[in-house]
Amino acid sequence: WRLTVRRAAEAPPLSQRELAEAWDQAIAASGLPIFVGDPVKPKARVVFGAPLTVGMASDGELLEIVLTERLPAWQVREALQPRLPAGWTLVDLADVWLGGPALAGRVTAADYRIVLAGEASGSAVATAAQALLAARSLPRERAKGDTVVRYDLRPLLADIQVVAPGP
Question: For residue range 15-40, what is the model confidence (pLDDT) as tens digits?
Fold first, then answer.
């Protein structure tokens, strides 16, 4: 099943590992016939399409779970909805073909909405956005275990649109 879920800004800021465990516990508690993989160390199978940064709200994050029997959508929804991790809401779900492409390979892009607070003028924000788009590279470093991983964020940035405040 492919789940479309919403993460509220108030959701607990769990690490990716903690979040996966919270989802595993929620799905296991649902009573659904979950495929658990390794019988020695059973665990509900939850796959995130493109996990977001810790603490980031989301309107449409994608997850997949594998059930061992076919069920109607209403039954899957009723089993999951009251057991989701704190701050999460089930938006939609769909029964997908088990032999189809993996979810992670199907996610090709994401749109981010950033709300700025403070005294920045619209023209200053627009100038900063144009500077980001004009940059040849946007180097990033992050710790991964005992090493530092370096990469360029610029190829991942397709566009920036500055929108005036409003509804």
Answer: 888 988 899 899 989 999 988 877 78
CA 88 to chain centre: 11
Buried b (16+ CB within 10 A) or exposed e, 125-163: beeeeeeeeeeeeeeeeeeeeeeeeeeeeeeeeeeeeee
Under 8 Å between Cβ of 41 and 121: no
- Cα–Cα distances in angstroms (integers) from residue 70 to residues 5, 64, 96, in the given order: 21, 15, 11
Alpha-carbon span 122 to 128, nearest angstrom:
10
Interatomic CA distance for residues 29 and 46, integer angstroms: 13
Contact (CB, 8 A) for 47 and 16: no
Whole-model pTM above 0.90? no
Could you identify the residue written with the tokens 């919403």?
A: 6
